[in-house]
């Protein structure tokens, strides 16, 4: 999808505001020092996608999880050490994969422009390319981020969870300077549709050989069990769920004799960037409490309805919100290896 001309002026306003605040990020940051960085990253994402169709979703989610903890500083890429358990090994991040795509991109970038491009910028570019290569909108990514030196698994619990209500979601986003518009726009592909959970528990290895065992848009029963059993004191099932949909979920996730790693797919079009997620919410066929929370107040319900009726409106809002989110930065260095501090 090409740039939407009607969006350009708004995007540049957003970029101007953030460039003033950060005094670092710019669209031409690597024009002289590493002019081919964007092509290198794009090729790495394309190769990863050819190897594993879930790679684009994984990279987009990885960027989101990175930015929500200490800003977009590539702290989610750091490996745990003997004295520290890193973010990637925190409970919400166990299912992250495709780190090897960033490793490959970084290796090629270092060969072309040693010591110049941060891992945080590579991840931001890869997330954009993931959207584009899934049929979504394109946008210019501001660059100039620095990589962080701190990564703690304990901080990963700050990520918005599938059982969050609207107040909890608002607080999580507002603390990061993101609005209700951003909350709804980003939820469409970052919180739910692009959530990846492993069907089989496999130990993550350095080469990410287990990536093929992940399924795009798959959620374990534990993520939505609160909506189909003992919902509240008077109802066993969340009344906002379509009865036949709730029945199918209960069949998939029985209380007794439940198959190990049982769960449900979330979006039949989850390998494609589109607005199906919002349509499912309005149809009473969303899995998580955090999904249904988006229609619990008039402002966000109006946005869900708007995005469900117009894929273009969703894409435009998503671009604006991604630019805002990806400008959150707090790093200190340019790592030579994305998995370890210098």
Name the helix and strand elements from N-terminus to C-terminus, one letter apiece. Answer: HHHHHHHEEEHEHHHH
**Residues in helices, as a percent range:** 40-55%
Topology-level CATH name of the largest domain: Peroxidase, domain 1
Largest sheet composition: 2 strands, antiparallel
Proportion of residues in extended strands: under 5%
The tally of helices reads 12
Mean pLDDT: 84
Q: Using the alpha-carbon principal axes, give the shape.
A: globular
Query: What is the CATH class designation of the largest domain?
Result: Mainly Alpha
Strand order of the largest sheet: 1-2
Q: How many structurally independent domains?
A: 2
Name the CATH architecture of the largest domain.
Answer: Orthogonal Bundle
Separation of termini? 38 Å
Region (Disordered): 138-157
Protein name: Peroxidase
Site (Transition state stabilizer): 61
Family: Belongs to the peroxidase family. Classical plant (class III) peroxidase subfamily.
């Amino acid at each position: 999808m090409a740039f939407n001309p009607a969006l350009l002026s708004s995007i540049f306003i957003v970029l101007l505001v953030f460039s003033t605040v950060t005094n670092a990020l710019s669209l031409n940051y690597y024009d002289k020092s590493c002019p081919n960085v964007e092509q290198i990253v794009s090729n790495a994402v394309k190769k990863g996608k050819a190897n594993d169709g879930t790679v684009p979703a994984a990279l987009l989610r990885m960027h989101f999880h990175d930015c929500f903890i200490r800003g977009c500083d590539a702290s989610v890429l750091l490996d745990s050490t003997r004295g520290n358990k890193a973010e990637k090994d925190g409970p919400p991040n166990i299912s992250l994969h495709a780190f090897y795509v960033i490793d490959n991109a970084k290796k090629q970038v270092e060969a072309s422009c040693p010591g110049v491009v941060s891992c945080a910028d590579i991840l931001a570019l890869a997330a954009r390319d993931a959207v584009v290569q899934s049929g979504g909108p394109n946008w210019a990514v501001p660059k100039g981020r620095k990589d962080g030196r701190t990564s703690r698994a304990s901080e990963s619990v700050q990520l918005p969870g599938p059982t969050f209500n609207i107040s909890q979601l608002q607080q999580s986003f507002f603390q990061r300077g993101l609005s209700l518009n951003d909350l709804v726009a980003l939820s469409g592909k970052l919180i739910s549709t692009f959530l990846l959970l492993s069907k089989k528990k496999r130990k993550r290895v350095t080469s990410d050989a287990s990536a093929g065992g992940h399924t795009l848009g798959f959620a374990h029963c534990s993520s939505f069990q609160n909506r189909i059993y003992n919902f509240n004191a008077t109802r066993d099932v969340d009344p906002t769920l379509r009865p036949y949909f709730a029945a199918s979920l209960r069949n998939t996730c029985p209380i007794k004799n439940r198959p190990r790693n049982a769960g449900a797919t979330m979006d039949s079009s989850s390998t494609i960037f589109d607005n199906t997620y919002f349509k499912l919410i309005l149809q009473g066929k969303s899995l998580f409490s955090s999904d249904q929370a988006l229609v619990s107040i008039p402002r966000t319900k109006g946005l869900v309805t708007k995005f469900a009726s117009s894929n273009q409106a969703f894409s435009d809002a998503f671009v604006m919100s991604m630019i805002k989110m990806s400008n959150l930065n707090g790093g200190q260095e340019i790592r030579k290896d994305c998995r370890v501090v210098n």
